[in-house]
Amino acid sequence: MEEDDALRARMEACRRRDNQLAARGHDAKPVAEAVADLMAAPWFSRHMMLKAYLAAWPEVVGAEAAQHCELLGAANGVLRVRVDSAACRQELENFRKWDILAALKEHKGCRNTSDVKFELGELERGK
What we know:
Layout: H1 2-25, H2 31-40, H3 42-61, H4 63-66, E1 69-75, E2 78-83, H5 86-95, H6 97-104, E3 115-120
Parallel strand pairs: 2-3
Antiparallel strand pairs: 1-2
């Protein structure tokens, strides 16, 4: 008798779950609409912009300097970069900044770059 009650309760819980899942199906969007919503999201454009910077950075600054850098983000045309070496930061910020900006503007996805801000700190990827 208790087993029957437990089985009935379990079957009822399954029916409720199935009904909830079926109700959600009516709210589904077409794939094209979902993709358009995704591409319109602000975080998505920031992610794609950072992806473009990540692809261009080693070519722009060189492989050796890129090993000492970590891209933190980009907003309003300003790229923020953490550098783990004071000497490398000095070189990039004071001697190569304008060349870096010019080279970034030649890469698709980085063309609206107006400034690069460097900060000294420990790189996260090393952890």
